[in-house]
Specification:
mainly beta; two-stranded antiparallel ribbon; 9 helices; about 15% helix
Length: about 575
């Protein structure tokens, strides 16, 4: 190891200590943790922002801290005119959330109406109260609470069961897939300064599918997977600590990020991949949210779990701001690089990363994106995003293989035609061939083998439409229609459909027509019912129809078409 590598390793070890020492005195005024990006509170805030009840939410930069979300609830509570705009169901959900964020709203909850669940009444407002310990469900939210100054901790079990049954016209037998997940979630605060969170989940899946008889490997959306032919096992742990104040938060640990205004999938950073170790700095005001991420990724390749791994990292920053109340705008840069775990130029939150990448030899995968949310129309929101991986301005609009970009447009309407508690959403995504890929496959835009951006990867498009109706707080009904098309690589032709295979103009020319290759089309029509019978205990029932059409290729001269009817029952507690 040379002296330069030694210096970089030493600097990497002490970089975070130095950063905390500098910024710490300005942050140590409060405590909080982050709310996972799949929590329903974000849909609620999105709805209220669209109805002009709360100001700019900046939900293009997720996850948010609990204190920031509590700030929106505080705003509603202190604005009687805004609160009166909430319909009965929105008000019921508001009171429901006051319990969820009671730690951050403790100073004024005494004057608020509280929502007591049936389970809480049965435990602590009935004859059961004398025999139930105080630490069990004492706050109407968590199963166990532990408070011993300066430590406040909450613990909940994680219990998830999924039962899927499917009939496919190409299969003689009915397909079934069972999935069991067990774990726990521990979170809380240490004094006035530090928040912490640990979320551990072990999952076993089995059924009629043929599972690999392979000890260690990976699957899409997952990290470590272990299989024996009859079932697979995988685990996932999300754990971090946070130092925060009203405007700053500094996270170090294992988490994910979700950047972009889309809900079906994002072009920049999606939360579909498994979590990764990271350092995250976030600063926010009512009109500005700035985020810097320095993360360490895993690039899966043969024998990865047996020593064949490579150093790979990601750095990114995003600015989301509101110049006018009716417009939110965002700009972000992402760099994926390999061969070293630390690069000083990329550790600078305010550096222009594209310039830094040029300075460091133009050897890394650099992406830049822009997005917006237009909210001037009543009860409506129009949004879009564009992501540039690489492009040549003189050849924009052509099929030039070096034009690697993606774009997405969408709209969201709350209470259309004044139908209370009804919502409509539509999104269209377009991803050019070779987008996210790089001439060095180690720099491909993946975590394990899952894209960090849009889940379809390059050379694809998708139309997504969703209708949602919520007649009761505990009941939600959804209908979704999704149609996607993707041009896959074949053994004989590289058309830019594989994120791990870079362009090779010597062999295939400099033209990359959209949706060339083995074209596959998928139509999905689905219906879903969501019910929360007890707090944080969800029961979901979904019915889906899938129609898959694949065009014939030289390797597979016969068309491969299938139609599938699928029923899925899911039970989750604190999921």
């Amino acid at each position: 190891m040379n002296n330069e590598t030694n210096v970089k390793n030493i600097f990497m070890k002490y970089y975070f200590i130095i950063f905390f020492a500098i910024i710490g005195p300005y942050c140590l005024n409060g405590q909080t943790i982050y709310v996972q990006s799949d929590h329903w509170v974000y849909d609620y805030l999105d709805r209220l922002e669209t109805l002009k009840i709360i100001p700019a939410v900046h939900n293009g930069t997720l996850p948010m801290t609990r204190s920031k979300i509590a700030g929106y609830l505080r705003f509603i509570s202190k604005s009687p005119n805004q609160f009166e705009k909430l319909n009965n169901l929105d008000q019921e959900q508001f009171y429901y959330l006051l319990i969820e964020f009671q730690d951050e709203l403790e100073d004024f909850l005494e004057n608020q109406t509280m929502y007591d669940s049936c389970f809480f009444k049965w435990l602590h407002k009935s004859k059961m109260d004398p025999i139930i310990p105080d630490f069990i469900y004492k706050n109407n939210r968590n199963l166990f609470s532990f408070i011993n100054d300066p430590l406040i901790a909450y613990w909940d079990p994680i219990f998830f069961r999924s039962r899927l049954f499917a009939d496919t016209d190409t299969s003689q037998a009915r397909e079934y897939v069972f999935q069991d997940t067990n774990g726990f979630r521990l979170w809380g605060f240490l004094g006035r300064y530090v928040g912490f969170m640990v979320d551990v989940r072990d999952t076993r899946e089995w059924g009629s599918r043929q599972y690999p008889n392979q000890k260690n490997y990976t699957e899409k959306g997952l990290g470590f997977v272990q299989g024996n032919g009859d079932f697979i096992y995988h685990d996932e742990t999300r754990a971090y600590s946070v130092v925060s104040s009203n405007h700053f938060s500094i996270l170090f640990g294992k988490d994910d990020n979700r950047w972009g205004p889309g809900t079906q999938s994002q072009l920049a950073l999606s939360d579909r991949a498994t979590t990764y170790d990271q350092f995250r700095l976030k600063f926010h005001t009512s009109r500005i949210t700035f985020t810097h991420v320095y993360a360490w990724l895993q690039h899966y390749q043969p024998d990865f779990f047996y020593g064949n791994y490579a150093q790979k990292a990601l750095t990114a920053h995003r600015l989301e701001f509101t110049p006018w109340s009716w417009l939110d705008m965002g700009i972000h840069e992402v760099i994926v690089f390999s061969g070293r775990m630390f690069e000083a130029g990329y550790a600078n939150p305010f550096m222009f990363y594209r310039s830094a990448e040029h300075y460091l030899g133009d050897r890394d995968n650099a992406l830049i994106g822009f997005d917006f949310e237009f909210k001037a129309v009543a009860r409506s929101k129009f949004y879009g995003e564009v992501l540039f991986d690489d492009f040549k301005a003189s050849k924009l609009g052509s099929d030039y293989y070096g034009n690697k970009y993606a774009w997405m447009m969408g709209c969201f309407i709350a209470d259309p035609f004044r139908l209370s508690n009804f919502e409509m959403r539509a999104e269209y995504s377009y991803i050019r061939p070779y987008t996210y890929s790089h001439e060095n496959p180690l720099n491909s835009y993946v975590q394990y083998n899952t894209p960090l951006g849009h889940y379809l990867g390059p050379n694809a498009k998708e139309l997504f439409v969703e209708f949602a109706f919520q007649p009761k707080r505990w009941l939600g009904l959804l209908t979704r229609i999704k149609q996607s098309s993707k041009g896959e690589n074949t053994d004989l032709l590289n058309v830019g459909g594989n994120i791990l295979v870079p362009a090779n103009p010597v062999d295939y020319g400099d033209s990359a027509p959209f949706l060339e290759g083995a074209l596959s089309k998928v139509l999905n029509i689905g219906f879903e019912t969501r019910m929360e019978f007890l707090r944080n205990m969800w029961v979901n029932l979904s019915l889906d129809y899938f129609c898959l059409d694949r065009e014939a290729t030289l390797e597979n001269p016969e068309l491969v078409n299938s139609k599938t009817f699928q029923a899925n029952f899911m039970l989750s507690i604190n999921y």
